[in-house]
Design a protein that fits this description.
The protein is built from 12 helices and 11 strands. By secondary structure, the protein is of the alpha+beta class.
């Protein structure tokens, strides 16, 4: 009879299998890396190591991503079935516990400025469940139980099968009254690219916003990059320039007069969405929470 050591010796390392499964499922090493919350380099290395361990070519690069070889399709079928079985079993065991824990991963701006002040309401909705909130722009690995629900921001057209759109907020320029009193106000939207702008991780959000507004920049945009929307609004409130924001994140600052909206625009760039594990479908408590999130975001957007 095979021993536990014999069985383990025939199994490739789990990290390699997770990287292979995510890549094969998404059709891209980069998307697979995003799904696992690691870098593209890490996933690529794990897949190469798995191919070396197997002595077989499992993936080939194509014009639209990666393609499974015949051997890769055989392995993918087994890995998918095994991961689904593990996830379903883990979900059943976790949901059977009394006093369960709900782990929420949420993008930083929404987590800090909107979700945190509503934790007491969430705990009331999920009575008897402890809420653990993590502020992060990474996606969790649901199969390993890192989270039970993730709130992200992006293009609804690329959502996973378990993704649910919530809201596409209106995005608009914001600045502090003190900064405007010192520097003046841009005369027009066409003039705005020449003013000090506050960016998130890259210049892309402002660039996309100008494209949607029909404004040509004519040059590479400049200004500090502060990684997330919450830091950008903090910088604008501290009179460091003009930031892009939404009513959902900036409602309190707008109401208190700490920030003011520039121009009247109606531009939407991406939206908030929910991701949940496949085994959580039909969970009444989770469905109540998701419905509440959608309603509250819509109310916040309307102001």
């Amino acid at each position: 009879m095979p021993t536990r050591e014999d069985t383990a010796a025939r199994l490739p390392p789990l990290l390699m299998l997770r990287a292979f499964e995510a890549t094969g499922r998404t059709g891209s090493m980069r998307k697979g890396a995003d799904d696992l919350g690691v870098s593209h380099t890490v996933v690529s290395r794990h897949v190469r190591n798995l191919e070396s361990w197997m002595g077989r070519k499992l993936l080939t690069a194509g014009p639209r991503g990666v393609v499974l070889t015949d051997e890769g399709q055989i392995l993918m079928a087994s890995v998918t079935k095994a991961f689904r079985l593990i996830a379903n079993t883990a979900g059943e065991l976790r949901s059977a516990r009394a006093g369960a824990i709900l782990r929420i991963w949420c993008i930083p701006g929404l987590a800090t400025r909107w979700l945190t002040p509503r934790l007491a309401v969430i705990e009331e909705i999920l009575r008897g469940t402890d809420v653990v909130l993590r502020s992060t722009d990474s996606l969790p690995d649901f199969a390993s139980g890192e989270a039970d629900l993730a709130i992200g921001f992006g293009d609804f057209g690329t959502l996973a099968a378990t993704g649910r759109p919530l809201l596409r907020p209106r995005m608009f320029p914001l600045a502090s009254p003190q900064w405007l009193a010192t520097h003046g106000t841009p005369a027009s939207l066409a003039d705005l690219p020449n003013w000090p702008l506050i960016h998130e991780e890259s210049h892309r959000q402002w660039t996309d916003w100008f494209d949607a507004a029909g404004v040509g920049t004519g040059h590479r945009l400049h200004g500090p990059r502060l990684w997330d929307a919450s830091l950008g609004l903090d910088a604008a409130r501290a009179s460091q320039g003009i930031a892009l924001g939404s009513r959902i994140l900036a409602a309190a600052d707008l109401a208190a007069g700490r920030l003011v909206e520039l121009f009247q625009t109606d531009i939407h760039l991406g939206g908030y969405y929910i991701l949940t594990p496949a085994h959580s479908q039909g969970n009444p408590a989770l469905d109540r929470l998701i419905s509440w999130l959608g309603r509250e975001l819509e109310l916040a957007e309307r102001g």
